[in-house]
Amino acid sequence: MARVLVIERVWGQDELARLHRPVGFGSFNLMLAHIVLIGLDYAGSGAHGYSGLLGELWDITWGLPGMLLAVAGALCLVLVVVTSIRAARRRLRYESWHLMHLYAYLGVVLALPHQLWTGGDFLANPLATAYWWTAWAGTAAAVIVFRLGLLRGPGARGDRADQSVLALYADLRRADRVFSTYRRDSEISLLRSGALSRELASPDMREVLELCAQARTLTGGFFDAEPPQPGGRRQLDPSGLVKGWAVERAARGLDLLEGLDWLVNAGGDVLGRANHGPAWRIAVEDPRDRTRVLCVLPLRNGAVATSGTAAHGRHIIDPRTGSPAADHSLSATVVGPSLTWADVLATAAFVQGPTALARVADLPNYEALLVLPDGRRTATPGLTAQANKEGP
Domains plus CATH for the chain? Predict the structure, then answer.
């Protein structure tokens, strides 16, 4: 799953995604078989026979070079596999699961010294040595170039591209310092506490507040940056708009990179351009089972944003009541040219329910997909075909 583009074009991303699970579990089972068979071989030739398997494994772990690292690597892979079992996967937030999934890379790296130090017989054959190093080098290159990459194209690893990516992250950090409601010294916190008046707010803050006012009007009040709090008091919280706005603004530098495609993933909401290669393929998660892909949406120039309960529970507030939104839907996904407005419209559609589709359909170049509580899908005309097509 290193996202090697040549392989994706031949096999298709959907097919590769479908194969990822059986290949991953199959590889893990092969590793377990390797451990057990090696242990049985050593135990069978030892003084205690097969009854001393556990003792033999203990001696191997402490006696052979690199084995402690290999054991640590195996434990990392156990963590990845256990958290990939569907029952466990459903109980984890996406961010937690994804972080633990990355331990697969650490497990592989920790196993490398064991293979180097104990694979003398294997490496004695020149052909086997060439195969071994080619496989490792190819895997490392695929991961570094494709899996860790944000950009796609001939100059994706150049200095100019790297500087643009660094500038994007720096811009997002600056936005966090201004708009984070968790920082006491942020500008939004000063506004909320009354220590700063709106008249003296920064240009960025005034721009966001104006966009929030437009969003309230556009959505008929189903998105509001000042929802009521207990007691009826309203409190400013533009977070539902700021993320898309900040990513969109920070990504402007990527548009200046000639000949490159790019994609930014902001916590599941994505913004991308694909003017030179195939369209990006954005998977929409099934809110009832986050191990499944509901459908795949092509994205060439624009954004995809999803709001729902799958990742964070009932955290979306109905701004008309100040209470968690009613169960009109499980998730709402909006596709459009702007991540700022796709994110706003997805939040509003989740709160409003299926009647929001008409509002989205009236907007040029925006489409929406809702998953209803019973699992049925309903969508605007432009997404109907993709919505009814099963994911991998």
Answer: 5-148 (no CATH), 159-387 (3.10.520.10)
> pLDDT tens digits, residue range 283-339?
888 888 877 888 889 999 999 999 987 666 667 888 887 777 778 888 999 999 999
* pTM: predicted TM-score of the whole model, two decimal places: 0.64
User: Which pair of tokens denotes residue 27?
Assistant: 């590889």
Residue 318 DSSP SS3: strand
To the nearest 10°, the Cα dihedral for 38, 39, 43, 48? Answer: 180
Residue 225: closest CA among 256, 263, 191: 191
Query: Each residue of 124-169: pLDDT tens digit?
Result: 677 877 877 787 777 777 666 555 445 566 656 566 777 888 888 8
Q: At residue 5, what is the residue type?
A: L
Give the angle subtended at the CA of 63 by the CAs of 62 and 66, to the nearest 5°. Answer: 75
How many residues are recorded in the chain? 392
DSSP-assigned states of every residue in 107-151:
HHHHHHHHHHHH-HHHHTSHHHHHHHHHHHHHHHHHIIIIIS-SE
Tokens of 220: 């008929």
